[in-house]
Amino acid sequence: MKIFVSTGEMSGDLHLSYLVEEVLKADPTVEFYGVVGDHSKKAGVEVVQDIRDLAIMGFTEALKKYSYLKKKAYEYLEFIEKNGIEKVILVDYGGFNLKFLELLKKRLPHVETYYYIPPKLWVWGEGRIKKLKLADHIMVIFPWEVEFYRKHEVEAVYYGNPFIDKYKLIERKGDNILLLPGSRKQEVGKLLPEMLKVVEANREERFLLKLAKEKHSRWVEEDLNNYKNLEVNTDISLADAIERSKTAIAASGTVILELALMGIPGVVVYKTGLINEFIARYILKLGYVSLPNLTLNEEVYPELLQKDCNSEKIWEKTEEILKDPEGSNAKIMQIREKLSGDDVILSYAKYILEGK
């Protein structure tokens, strides 16, 4: 069996890699090809396009890449047709994958399609559900999504959140405050200076800055060596960093869910450009942005976005967490419980292999 896969970001690539691994364990004869990153390549996918070439953040950046992505979509269709691909798995990345799904079903309607981790339509607008319905199968990873899609007469498959299989609770032994400014230049450039103000203002505390790469430290003007109560580490795993920390300050994204599943509280921070802020606030009408908060429908992880993302408010929320660690821990356990399932990733893999 030949399967084509399409994702566009690191988080989707990570989820896809877990799925590929389980499919290949169950049936080693399956061949995977597609648009992926390093995680899925390592898991066994033959790379047709590396996702690093597709990196987009925000609305304005997406507009610049539109014609390039359209050209790529038709190249992928050619590949699917020429190579006798039987199934296609789309992972997240709705800006591209929904259009690709539409083109795919128009040109190759016989190819069985799976949308794994569909775009957050409760955020981005329910109007896009018409395109999503073109998929033969929709597989979601959050419990509230099942009811959301049922409202629109779509049966979504849910076995639990895949990260439950991968992330175990960690016993925290350190007293650092963990800083996670993200991995994109725009994120690090906007968030790390505010984090460093927190470090400077609280010299009695110890801070651990985890950067994805050493060169990321050059994306800010500040010299990190000047902060005596700051340790900078590019090699440490997230799990080891959490073990050495008591709380975290982290860029909004998948990492917030990882923090929750490994049992550490924290503050969510994020800044985007002015155009993106306008669209987010007035068109999307976002409530919570972090997945743990959406899971319980309450603010377990304080969210400081845009103008609220400043050093004073970051420290204020961090102090609140440090004063009531038991309260945070109890909520975190509720998040894990709500997202649990049995052999979650294997269940999704078997569903794909069984097909229609």
Automatic annotation (TrEMBL):
> What biological processes does GO assign it?
lipid A biosynthetic process
Q: Which Pfam families match?
A: LpxB
Question: Which InterPro entries does the entry mention?
Answer: Glyco_trans_19 (IPR003835)
Q: Broadest EC class?
A: transferase
Superkingdom per UniProt: Bacteria
Q: Which EC numbers does the record give?
A: 2.4.1.182
| GO terms under cellular component | membrane
Annotated transmembrane regions:
none
Gene Ontology terms, MF aspect: lipid-A-disaccharide synthase activity; phospholipid binding
Keyword list (alphabetical) reads:
Glycosyltransferase, Lipid A biosynthesis, Lipid biosynthesis, Lipid metabolism, Transferase
Enumerate the catalysed reactions.
Answer: a lipid X + a UDP-2-N,3-O-bis[(3R)-3-hydroxyacyl]-alpha-D-glucosamine = a lipid A disaccharide + UDP + H(+)
Q: What does this protein do?
A: Condensation of UDP-2,3-diacylglucosamine and 2,3-diacylglucosamine-1-phosphate to form lipid A disaccharide, a precursor of lipid A, a phosphorylated glycolipid that anchors the lipopolysaccharide to the outer membrane of the cell.
* Protein known as: Lipid-A-disaccharide synthase
Record the organism.
Answer: Propionigenium maris DSM 9537
